Amino acid sequence: MNAINTKEQNEMQRITRKFWEKNLKLITASMVIWFASSYGIVILLGDVLTDVKFLGCTLPFWFGQQGSIMVFFLLVLNYAVRMDRITKSLKREYESSTITDINEKGA
Q1: Residue 107 DSSP one-character state
Q2: What are the beta bridge partners of residue 57?
Q3: Within a domain: residue 20?
Q4: Domain for residue 72, yes or no?
């Protein structure tokens, strides 16, 4: 019985590591995109993009007022959808590996 529990614990640790690796990659990518869209367009490229008009105002002004909030909302939505997929995928992977272990034990 201990061998099964140890195998199951090892599998759970592997799946947990995989989950956090994917989670941190997604968070990092989201933060980089948000930083680039809010700080980059508004502050770093503000002088260069002042002549670009978007919906009646300059692009840096629009991004400072509306765009960065919309980008943030889309990033949160993307994070929720992708984490749901990752969780379901890893759950299926864990369940299939534990079922395989149980079948091997019973055979």
Answers
A1: -
A2: 54
A3: no
A4: yes
